[in-house]
Amino acid sequence: MEYQYPFSMDWSTQEVIDVVHFFEAIEKAYEKGIKRDELLSRYRRFKEIVPGKADEKKFCNEFEEVSGYSPYRAVKKMKESESGLIKM
């Protein structure tokens, strides 16, 4: 994709990489589908880095604005699903 992922200058290099992996998982959910467990794992790591709801909303909204993919909807679908593939 031809856009930049949102991140904070306060994060370590590894945290930036992990947040990018989360956003890549969202892209995968929209483009091909992703295993629920993989998305859940990446979301949990994202929440370790971005624990606050306000910050989560800010970064997810920034990502949706540039990509057109909604992390909120993908995570909601993941939470409602028991197992299997998450395909948006």
Automatic annotation (TrEMBL):
UniProt-listed InterPro entries: BH2638-like_sf, UPF0223
Name the record gives this protein: UPF0223 protein G4D61_01760
Family: Belongs to the UPF0223 family.
